[in-house]
């Protein structure tokens, strides 16, 4: 019995040590992941995802996984500053997408300036967007694009009708989309515009019935070929002496204003389309 008791004590001691050892072992690292949809630009037919994976050393692995890429081609890719609607300089150069596989994988811990570190948390709040280009010799042509970080849309939106005014057949909608950072993507979509024309557009103060009102926010001119305009709105227009006032999505959908779309830069007196927005819009 003595011998059995000694063996039992030793066994229990081993179990106890094993339990203590297990308690001191750190759990395996489980990094965070964020995924963004990359949409096709124009008629490229290229789309897919951009996945950000947090690594244990603090770096981030960015994987682009695209369909519709060109076999034998290499598609340069970059993270840019600002939203896609605004455009901006390159912040981070990514590995080109291999046209054969549609894959690009880049591990980053710094911006291209080689001075500014970038973490997973920084990237998912980043004021940026991703461009994927046709080729190194044709960077002007984009095949896929997406906003990232704070510029991602929340899913909240509000649309307003833009009615025909002085230019026959031109009408459409203005849609305000909320971003994660509280800013707004303003999309004008018009029917009846013609290729070769550009139509200046503005948000004015007051209602259509009280027009003319002062310009509050200058929007990107509507392209006549596509009938489209995209503008990122974060503030009202400033002046030479004063910066504009910060304006959020919530501010805009309650704004006392209206939108004018003009015939051309040379003919601002002729209105192509117009509509009340915010507090002045008619509830349907």
UniProtKB/TrEMBL annotation:
Q: Under what name is this protein listed?
A: CHRD domain-containing protein
**Signal sequence, start to end:** none
Tell me the protein family, please: Belongs to the Cu-Zn superoxide dismutase family.
The protein's superkingdom reads: Bacteria
What range(s) does the CHRD domain occupy? 42-134
Which InterPro entries does this entry report, sorted A to Z?
Answer: CHRD, SOD-like_Cu/Zn_dom_sf
Native organism is Zunongwangia atlantica 22II14-10F7
Q: Which GO terms describe its biological process?
A: superoxide metabolic process
Question: Which GO molecular function entries does the Swiss-Prot or TrEMBL record give?
Answer: metal ion binding
């Amino acid at each position: 019995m003595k011998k059995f008791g000694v063996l039992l004590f030793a066994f229990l001691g081993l179990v106890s040590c094993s339990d203590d050892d297990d308690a001191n072992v750190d759990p395996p690292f489980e990094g965070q992941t964020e995924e963004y949809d990359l949409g096709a630009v124009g008629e490229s037919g290229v789309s897919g995802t951009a996945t950000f994976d947090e690594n244990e050393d603090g770096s981030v692995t960015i994987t682009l996984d695209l369909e519709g890429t060109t076999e034998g081609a290499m598609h340069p890719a970059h993270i840019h500053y600002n939203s896609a609607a605004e455009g901006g300089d390159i912040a981070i150069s990514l590995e080109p997408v291999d046209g054969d596989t549609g894959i690009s994988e880049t591990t980053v811990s710094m911006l291209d300036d080689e001075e500014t570190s970038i973490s997973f948390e920084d990237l998912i709040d980043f004021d940026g967007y991703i461009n994927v280009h046709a080729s190194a010799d044709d960077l002007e042509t984009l095949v896929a694009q997406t906003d990232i970080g704070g510029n991602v849309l929340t899913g909240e939106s509000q649309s307003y009708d833009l009615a025909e005014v002085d230019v026959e057949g031109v009408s459409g909608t203005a849609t305000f989309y909320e971003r994660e950072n509280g800013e707004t993507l303003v999309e004008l979509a018009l029917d009846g515009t013609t290729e070769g024309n550009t139509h200046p557009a503005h948000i004015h103060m007051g209602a259509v019935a009280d027009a003319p009102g002062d310009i509050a926010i200058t929007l990107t001119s509507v392209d006549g070929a596509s009938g489209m305009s995209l503008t990122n709105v974060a503030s009202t227009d400033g002046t030479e002496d004063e910066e504009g006032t910060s304006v959020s999505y919530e501010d805009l959908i309650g704004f006392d204003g209206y939108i004018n779309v003009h015939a051309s830069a040379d003919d601002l007196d002729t209105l192509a389309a117009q509509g009340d927005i915010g507090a002045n819009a008619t509830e349907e």
